Amino acid sequence: MARSRKALSWRKVWKFIWDDNSIWSWLVNVILAFVLIKFIIFPTLGFVLSTTHPIVAVVSGSMEHDARFEPWWEAHGQWYESRNITLKEFRSFPFREGFNRGDIMLLYGKKPKDIKRGDVIVFQSTSRDPIIHRVVDKRQDKSDYVFQTKGDNNADSIKTSQLDETRIPEAQVIGAAVFRIPLLGYVKIIFIEIIQMFQR
Description:
It is built from five helices and seven strands; from the N terminus they run ααβααββββββα.
């Protein structure tokens, strides 16, 4: 009898979650989705992909290409050529046509020794959110690797008192981008903008 009551209760809960069209059912679904993603999917992906941040939303336009590849290279290629990155080499880079604000990037925790020039990496910044830019130089400093990155849409690597993109230690590297999902990151961007609006 107690078992059948329990089964009936679970059926009611299941029906409420999946079949009920009330605002309360919708709220429960949002909370369940958040808990599932935050505490199950995200950590599992992080474990499988060997990184603390397996998925990141692109929140700036620094990697956007404002034209097809050839016109973009005409406008920006001189910077790369002056650093011995040829057109042929750049064509072989992952995400050679950049990506946009609002895209979601899937990351893999590559070992620093396996990160190559042209890879797109996410690195921790002390001045702001993690940054996703392309590696344009890699060198060894004692036993550690040091990277220089640049946003494809930026005129140069960022070098300020708060951020020196010409000298990123391997300890700050979170992972390398391996897959792009267009526009899905706008969910996060809009959510953050709404929160910031209420904080003003």
